[in-house]
Amino acid sequence: ARAAGVGGAEGPTQIRSVVDSVVRHWKARLGPVRPVTRRIARHLPEVVVDPRRLEEALYELMDNAVKFSPEHSRILVTARLIDDFVPIDATPDGPVAPGAAVEISVDDLGIGIADDELGRIFDDFAQADSTATRSFGGLGLGLSVVRRTVEAYGGELVCETEEGRGSRFSILLPVVPIEVVED
After folding, report:
1. How far apart are CA 11 and CA 8, in angstroms?
2. Is residue 53 within 8 Å of residue 6, measured between CB atoms?
């Protein structure tokens, strides 16, 4: 399944290069005011995505981390392999074996999200707190666009948060087995 506006340039993509590009951008933009740290597991497999679209999605998560956390607080970007990923749209018709996925997470020490707001943050034109638009700016489209992009590649966008303590947004992308073709 493809989301509108996704497709065409996808192919095997090195996650490290995507994460490095986005982190470099944000380090240059924020300077010494806000530390941005990255932790990337060695030997991550490639995932099949449009690297530009993945960069845009990760950029949006970073933008939210900066926007909704105090100045001088750190932002951590991690990438790792997980082996128990089951796509959210897995069919109930039969057992779905968990598979490998690459998880890219952005952690902040920001305002967090209240439990009663968590269910709607991925909707179009939504922000967790209706006063947040006035305080922090934005249309509330970012997370819905990220979600659609990630889901177009068979992945999932997950949020772990605690109000007043920060959030972790994770992009989970399935590792597609490479087909070996012998001539």
Report:
1. 9
2. yes
- In the block, residue with structure tokens 């986005």: 22
Per residue in 139-175, pLDDT (tens digit) is 455 788 999 999 999 999 999 998 888 999 999 999 8
Name the β-bridge partners of 105: 78, 170
For residue 25, name the pLDDT band (cuts at 50, 70, 90): very high
CA pair distance 69, 166, nearest whole angstrom: 7
Strand partners, 166: 162
Give the rounded distance of the alpha carbon of 24 from its chain centre. 17
Class of domain 11-174: alpha beta
Q: What angle do CA 135, 25, 65 make, to 5 degrees?
A: 30
Question: Torsions phi, psi of 29, nearest 5?
Answer: -70, -40
